[in-house]
Structures are given as C-alpha cells and as structure tokens.
Amino acid sequence: MKLPLQVTFRNMDPSEALEQNIRERAEKLNHFYDRLMSCRVMVEAQHRHHRQGNLYHVRLDLTVPGGELAVSRDPAQDHAHEDVYVAVRDAFDAARRRLEDFARRQRQEVKTHAAPALGRVAQLYPAEDYGIIETPDGREIRFRRDSLGEREFDRLAIGDEVTFDEEAGAEGPEASTVTPKGQRHV
C-alpha cells in the first residue's frame, strides 16, 4: 500500500489484538492486489446491550487505481457478528472478492456468453434419431433427437431455421441445445 493503513474504532475501546488482526488481513489484501493504494477500516459496536452480545459493523474503504471500493458488513441479520473477529473476517473476505472482480475487469477477463449459432435443418433421419444442420458458412453439424424436446424433433422439417450450441462430438462437430426458430420453409 502506498498510504499507511487507517483503523478506527467507534463505540468501543481500541484493541491491540484486533488491530493486529486487521493489519494482517490488510497485508494479505495488499499481497493479493499489489496496486492497492490505501485501506481504511472502521469497526463499530452497534449497541451497548449487556444481556446479549454487541453486534459489530465493519466498513472497508479501499483506494485502487481509477476508483474506490467500499465494503460494508452490516450485522443487522447476522448474529455471528456478535464476535468482532467474525465481523472483520467477513468484511475482509468480501473485500477480497471485490478486489478479484476489479482485477478481472482491469485485465478485461469478464465472462461473456456467446450467442448460439444459427443454421438450417439440411437432413433429418427420424428412424436413427438424428439430423444435420447446415451453417451459413456451409459446414454440416450433426444433432441428436435428445438435443431438443421429443415433440420438437418430430415437428422439424428440412429448411427450418434453428439456433444451437456447438461442441466436439465423437464423429466431429455436434450441436447441443437445438432450438427451432421461425417458421418452416418449403
């Protein structure tokens, strides 16, 4: 980190052991994402109940190149946060996940879902439970009856447009998840 870690305690007495735990966790974040510029941690005791344990709220503000990430673990529904160390652990775990997502976006490794391919039914062999799809670039892709619903296969006709996902099969490219599209062509 370029700036020193800042730890703030609210509605509670400062604890050297807790601050050391926070410093160790912040150092792990710094090893995980070496471009971390600063980290501010606020630990707050929500209530001063003596019959039941206090609930702790932990907030982390991380400064990274191009922005700031804020992580807040609100204890309202989680009675495990009666233990301040659990609340701190949960907040740092959430911060690590946020940093992972941020780093993936920076490296442009965000998941994208490919659109299904488009083709036309070129051949049907109902007795053998398969057919052939011809793609716009002239390739032939085999598909099986179980790639669509039972009734859908029986409704297919040569020339029907379909969308499909392509995968490697035992006999070459094979279509999975075949979906009829549009009306039949004569």
UniProtKB/TrEMBL annotation:
Residues 162-186 are annotated as: Disordered. It holds the Pfam family CSD. One of its GO terms (molecular function) is DNA binding. Keywords: DNA-binding. InterPro entries: CSP_DNA-bd (IPR002059), NA-bd_OB-fold (IPR012340), RHF-like (IPR036567), RHF/RaiA (IPR003489). Residues 119-179 form the CSD domain. This is Cold-shock protein DNA-binding protein. It comes from Candidatus Methylocalor cossyra.
